[in-house]
């Protein structure tokens, strides 16, 4: 039985912080009223809801009425995209990128099936879009630009502030405003998010990527944005996201976001140090590898490496036997075949793309974790390569 466990899949999800659990606990059994109720039980939870909204708003430099709680990042992305296009009388044009998470890509594909037009921007070899390409793609009928803040497979950071600045400039002279959405699921709690500096109209976050529970998300919507709900029912969340609010989780995401923002620099330094240790170790110990994306243009906690001549899935299974958890990229990509759409867009050759693994760090990882991976990984790769029909040892 494998005793040692190393979790390097923090971009898929994180453990819930013990302080966050403690903060949530009273809202399961002591303070459990419906926040819409007028009695004292309801007023207590309403207060927790307001305080949580206020905390998140202040950390994003937003107003309290611009913060909407949702069920997850996927739901926030869907509300942002369909919520904006549904307000239009005609089926307009949307611009996004080829490397978005499926939570953005699939809604865009759905729009296309229904007569909308979508441009998917290319990326360079590091996974970054060109502002010039975006400028060229803008049309008279463009209604929405949705570009992720950092990519979930390779960590590539997109020029959100530059896009926001450009769109604000051209919007001043346009009849129909182009709204700007960013999926910040991989950056929330990792870098400082200021919606005014980023100049976004909509921004998505998901709690389980920064030590809150799974099943709670946030959508920031700038005041004055023309947006419609995509589900209908009660008047919760200003009727944009009807349904009784999940107060324990709302309290949890606010607490987790608060903790993360109080320790941004320290956490960033920590994961960056560990990532660079692992990267250097892999480069030193394992031949024929490619680091996908550039560390300088990516968030600090993601390392994506292709091990030539082997299958990423096979490597994951073997590493799992040693207690090491990593990923081939997006958890949601599993079972879709055809390899990663992100690596494909970055023009990584298909053979190298097949052998790609994402290691993603969190603040509970240690130097000992990296040392252990560097002990197990080289021999595991070598074992798989010796079984590979395409591997020739020189
Ligand atoms: N967007 C990005 C960039 C992600 O990485 C993920 C999850 O991996 C999502 C959206 C979906 O978030 P959730 O799992 O909360 O639905």
Explain what the structure shows:
This protein has 14 helices and twelve strands. With 394 residues, the chain is an alpha/beta fold. The chain has two domains: 6-15 and 264-386, Aspartate Aminotransferase, domain 1, CATH 3.90.1150; 18-262, Type I PLP-dependent aspartate aminotransferase-like (Major domain) (Aspartate Aminotransferase, domain 2). The strands form three sheets. A seven-stranded mixed beta sheet has the order 2-8-7-6-5-3-4, sandwiched between helices. A three-stranded antiparallel beta sheet has the order 9-10-12. A two-stranded parallel sheet has the order 1-11. Bound molecules: pyridoxal-5'-phosphate.
Per-chain topology:
Layout: E1 6-7, H1 18-24, H2 26-29, H3 40-60, E2 67-70, H4 73-85, E3 93-97, H5 102-113, E4 117-121, H6 131-137, E5 142-146, H7 160-171, E6 179-183, H8 195-198, E7 202-206, E8 217-221, H9 247-262, H10 264-285, E9 289-291, E10 302-307, H11 312-321, E11 324-325, H12 341-345, H13 350-354, E12 356-360, H14 367-387
Parallel strand pairs: 1-11, 3-4, 3-5, 5-6, 6-7
Antiparallel strand pairs: 2-8, 7-8, 9-10, 10-12
Helix pairs in contact: 1-9, 3-9, 4-5, 10-14, 11-14
